[in-house]
């Protein structure tokens, strides 16, 4: 696959700041890839996305989006990307449809029309299609100031998808969405990634949303601290283990200690055995077990271990994930 995002030695330093908000980071995203950019609050995620979408100037470095330089060809970049930021950017005095229509006109998708009825059929079809997916069809002609936070988020998603962007930047896209709307959104995003090769660039605090991504990049204190597939990150940081229980805890402790098997005693026992060794371990165990569960590493565990290591090394507090 071709690269659709290329970032080389990107730096952003704000005035009066002693440290770089983004500090010499480099990464690439392939066309059609589902890419997650993770990190605690203040790590540099939103600053990076703001630079990539041309809403914030960089201090130094090279950035190309869909073959265009963000400095020299910013207008071409903007036509290729869709953006959903954390903070709403809707006109509360307009209806939902008016917000979408004026956004589409600004993007040059359609000539100006003062009324929805005068818009081309292609526009109407696209609006209805997206409103149906996000369950907002019955609200399209109501003023946005009457919308709940979740409804506003849905409207921003519809607006960002109107021009079928090559790259869709999602900065905490599902905050405020109910479970049904969240599921519908991800089903649709998977569909357009497959059919239209749309590249999705995601930041999220819902780490389960990043489990199905193709590639993850973790940033902390403005630097990239780990990257790879979710499976690579999990397997290289968090080991498999068994969770076991026994009515005879002293006997189990004695047997595990004698066999030099690492374990942690809590309400249950965490026994650190790799998947391939589970059968031989259970077959050779004399102490009777009352319960056995296998544990596979999660992305959340790996993320917290990475950020936790950075916290210890840098002697700074762990921020909310």
Structural commentary:
- This protein is α/β, with parallel strands linked by helices.
- It folds into 2 domains: about 5-235, Rossmann fold; about 240-295, Alpha-Beta Plaits, CATH 3.30.70.
- It has helices at about 45-50, 75-80, 95-105, 120-135, 150-160, 180-195, 230-235, 250-260, 280-285, 300-315, and strands at about 5-10, 20-30, 35-40, 60-65, 70, 80-85, 165-170, 200-205, 215-220, 225-230, 240-245, 265, 270, 290-295.
- Mean pLDDT is about 85; it is low at about 310-320.
What is this entry, summarized?
By secondary structure, this protein is α/β, with parallel strands linked by helices.
Give the tags.
single chain, 321 residues, alpha/beta, Rossmann fold, Alpha-Beta Plaits, 2 domains, six-stranded mixed β-sheet, four-stranded antiparallel β-sheet, 14 strands
Give the secondary structure arrangement, pairings included.
Blueprint lengths: L2 E10 L9 E9 L3 E5 L6 H8 L7 E6 L2 E2 L4 H7 E4 L11 H11 L14 H13 L15 H13 L5 E5 L7 H17 L3 E5 L11 E6 L2 E6 L1 H6 L5 E5 L3 H10 L4 E3 L3 E3 L6 H6 L7 E5 L3 H16 L7
Parallel strand pairs: 3-8, 3-9, 6-7, 7-8
Antiparallel strand pairs: 1-2, 1-4, 4-5, 9-10, 11-13, 11-14, 12-13
Helix pairs in contact: 3-5
